[in-house]
Amino acid sequence: MSSDRKPLVAAIDFGTTYSGIAFSFKHDYENDPLKVRSNNWTAGFRVLQTLKTPTCILFNKDKEFDSFGYEAEDKYSELAEDEENEELYYFKGFKMSLFNKEEPLSKAVKIKSIDGKEMLALDVFSAAIKFLRGQLRQSLEEEGAGIRETDIGWVLTVPPIWDDTARQFMREAAVRAGISGDKLLIAMEPEAASLYCKHLPIEKLQDEGGVQGFGVFSTESKYIVLDCGGGTVDITVYEVQPDLSLMELYKASGGAWGGTQVDEAYRQMLVKIVGSPTILEFSCSYAADYVDMYREFEIKKRSFKGDTKGKVTIRIPISPVEIFEEDTGQDIKETIENTKYSGKVMWVGDRCRITAEVMKSFFEVAGDQIVDHVRDLLNKPEISGTNNIIMVGGFSESPILQDMIKQSFPNLRVIIPPEPELAVLKGAVMFGHNPVTI
After folding, report:
1. How many other C-beta atoms can be found within 10 angstroms of the C-beta atom of residue 115?
2. φ, ψ dihedrals at 377, nearest 5°
3. Segments forming the whole domain that contains residue 348
4. Which residues of the chain are modeled with pLDDT < 50?
5. Same domain, yes or no: 21 and 141
6. CATH number at residue 123
7. pLDDT recorded at residue 99
8. Global pTM?
9. Could you tell me which residues come within 8 angstroms of residue 272 by beta carbon, excluding any fewer than 6 positions away?
10. Which of 48, 150, 284, 331 has the fewest beta carbons under 10 Å from its own?
């Protein structure tokens, strides 16, 4: 992006599971860098409102863009129920295909839809970026901002584990989506998150012990950015240099330990009760209900606290119980009594009541893997003296994950900014206004 300051900066955070956009005007940034606006997204007719939308994209049989996010999810699941989805191209969680490719990344690389059909990766990514770019234009038009395309500076975030070819691929996809290359910056996700946290007032960076977090960004301070998303967890370690720039102390690392691991643990419980055939038939014959089930669980997952007592009620469409009882001739209540969930799970109609202990167990696999990896990192000689952890990303909003990190590392300051899901996005907007800050 050229050095002249643009009247407006917009950022796209293209996540493995969720994606979002945010922007701020130059005059707002100069008065208050934290004044960054982001889109809210609504899931179908449900009450679920989120700060990001699922990274799902749907193309028609001619490989032309149809929809993105919740709309794509709803449309595809409804068509799947009517068995009208066979010719469509539906991609979900496709971001990591850029990292996992064994062949060299090029314009010719193809990625697979959820049912194995192939499209050019560049076409899929550029269509997604074009949609998000269009959402920004729509937001600006609705408020009558009078901003022209040439007035906008763009920032695209990428994971630190990506190499130069993957970053260049994203730049190419953005240009193909209509973003001018000289108005585009690429920002590393953990560096953008650091920038956002650095701008927060001291009182908002206090950890639970009341220790001020401002020292995290003082010279020679070392800290871990724990970016816990839906699909992946990226971990980066930095040291603040004398000129307040950041030096990466250890190569970025991580794994597939995000919030979707919690969803999978929940699904495994259902499988253990009604069996794989029932869940498979439910997901195929009642695809829209299946999507709704996970959205309902998402609400519970985000708000569940480790100290919750008693039972948690989760709405589940009645279809899986009906399928199970019809196919097996067994009663769901009696079946549960013969599993390890006897006395811990009550499933009546469209309501499943589970004990807090069972709910807590859903978080164990992901949480334990994150804790183990951070513990291994802290034993590396290169990062000795690191005493701060900054938690960002959507999964970092989970109170139970926050507690697991705090309890596992009592000697470290654990800092969680407000709306950690937007930390990368907001930091990327700030970076666009002042690129020399990273």
Report:
1. 11
2. -60, -45
3. 260-361
4. 2-3, 208-213
5. yes
6. 3.30.420.40
7. 67
8. 0.89
9. 339, 340, 341
10. 150
